[in-house]
Design a protein that fits this description.
The structure is a single chain. The protein contains 17 helices and nine strands. It has 455 residues and is α/β, with parallel strands linked by helices. The strands form two sheets. A seven-stranded mixed sheet has the order 4-1-2-3-7-6-5, with helices on both faces. α2 packs antiparallel against α9, α6 packs across α11 and α12 crosses α15.
Length: 455
């Protein structure tokens, strides 16, 4: 049905246009405005307005002053990456840019991001045999020269640390505590848990970005237009980049781990976490250095670690246990839903390092006892073709975690929880070995790598 809808929409609408962008200062806040338009072959148009705001909550520092026109390239690029949200509703044949121009090399870069960043969208909507990286989005040719922006050069020092409220950014906050005076937490349309984690980490100041979607797009999502997952971390990356420029920060230490490199569809390239992968991280830094900013580096501080290694470290930070949240379903309620793949995954990888009571205090129940979650566990264990389309770790580390839990119960001659018994029945436990160490590419500065290795 989605493929038929895709063909119908692309036949009705043939142009997506990035019309304009501008920025305003409003009571100490910056508001970025972006306008897009979809044009049909019979003159039908749909107009979208998207906004992004920046607010610095700090008594110790201020936004870097200066002519906002020096940030044109950054602002233009935020509008380009945010366009993905609106482009995917229809996927017209041609992508026009009226407020700027891209070189041939830049177009190839953005084609790759659109294709792989919307890989889950392509797979779940049945478009895999219909589109390629070159055909999925076609940036229309223009005889005029690309934007001739100078790259921004600013005095920069310290870290702008993205915080989402989950265990990973908590570990990064703790590892970088020795640089607290140089750190500034960064949150983007955050859940309550993100604020709680910043507070527990000992910070009073932070940079807040908010995204405001056009209501028309939200209505179209409920009316049968195309919808699906977007490369959220790529969007975060460009928005954080501008935030680092505004606050004079040198580094943006993300909390993406090595597990994000594994494809969601086993044996294929479709990866829910593509924009968290090392491949994207390298592409991002290459693009930033070539076209946008000279002195700001974006890297994942936790890239060498598996999710289970992050869980081991997080288990020691007990002050965060009552407040951290990773469940997307329960984000608005600041709760764990207890029935999704993210909840089950996080519970499973924490289980080797925390006792049952501590986990039940967090999640409200022992998720490994819930046999209704067996279909999700099958996906996490790699017993199906597709892993959950969620930010979860590798098949190997889920199996490794459950082997540890299984050994724990057997050593104490205790009855096995339903999902541990399911694991023992469906996986040859003897084939589950230790996780491979080393060998993962990363972009961590040498001094930061030492911080990671010292803990």
């Amino acid at each position: 049905m989605s493929l038929e809808r895709y063909r119908e929409l692309t036949s009705l609408y043939d142009q997506f246009i990035y019309e304009s962008y501008h920025v305003e200062e409003i009571d100490g806040m910056l508001m970025l405005y972006f306008q897009y338009k979809v044009v049909g072959e019979f003159g039908d148009t749909v107009v979208f307005t998207h906004r992004v705001s920046y607010e610095l909550h700090s008594e110790k520092t201020a936004l870097v002053s200066g002519d906002l026109r020096q940030y044109d390239a950054l602002i233009f690029t935020i509008g380009l990456v945010e366009a993905i949200n609106y482009y995917k509703t229809i996927c017209p044949g041609e992508f026009y840019i009226k407020c700027g121009r891209l070189s041939k090399e830049q177009k190839v870069w953005w084609q790759k991001l659109f294709y792989h960043g919307l890989g889950e969208f392509i797979y779940l909507n049945g478009l895999a045999q219909e589109v390629t990286q070159k055909s999925f989005v076609h940036f229309a040719d223009d005889e005029r020269m690309p934007n001739d922006y100078d790259r921004v050069t600013l005095p920069v020092l310290g870290n702008l640390i993205p915080v989402g409220g989950g265990k990973d950014s908590v570990v990064t906050l703790e590892l970088l505590k020795g640089m607290q005076k140089e750190n500034l937490p960064f949150v983007m349309s955050p859940p309550e848990a993100a604020y709680d984690c910043i507070r527990v980490a000992g910070y009073d100041d932070y940079l807040l970005a908010k995204r405001y979607f056009d209501q028309r797009m939200i209505e179209m999502n409920s009316q049968g237009f195309l919808n699906g997952h977007v490369p959220f971390s790529a969007i975060l990356g460009f928005i954080a980049l501008f935030g680092a420029a505004l606050t004079g920060k040198r580094y943006i230490p993300l909390s993406n781990e090595r597990s994000a490199n594994e494809a969601t569809v086993l044996g294929e390239s479709y990866n829910h976490q593509y924009s968290k992968s090392y491949e994207f991280e390298k592409d991002f830094n290459d693009y930033v250095e070539a076209y946008l900013v000279e002195d700001i580096r974006y890297f994942s501080f936790l890239r060498p670690l598996y999710e289970v290694e992050i869980a081991e470290r997080f288990a020691k930070y007990t002050a965060y246990h009552p407040i951290f949240r990773s469940c997307n379903r329960g984000k608005k309620e600041n709760a764990w839903c207890g029935v999704c793949s993210k909840c089950l995954f996080v519970y499973t990888i924490l289980a080797p390092y925390m006792d049952e009571k501590a986990l039940v205090d967090i999640f409200g129940k022992n998720l490994l006892e819930d046999d209704t979650l067996a279909p999700i566990m099958a996906e996490l264990l790699g017993l199906t073709e597709v892993k959950p389309f969620e930010c979860v770790g590798t098949v190997d580390e889920v199996r490794w975690s459950l082997k540890k839990v299984l050994s724990h119960y057997k050593a104490r001659k205790m009855a096995l929880p339903a999902l541990v018994a399911y694991f023992e029945k469906n996986v040859d436990v003897d084939t589950v070995g230790e996780l491979e160490k080393g060998g993962v590419e990363h972009m961590i500065p040498t001094s930061y790598l030492a911080l990671l290795e010292d803990h």
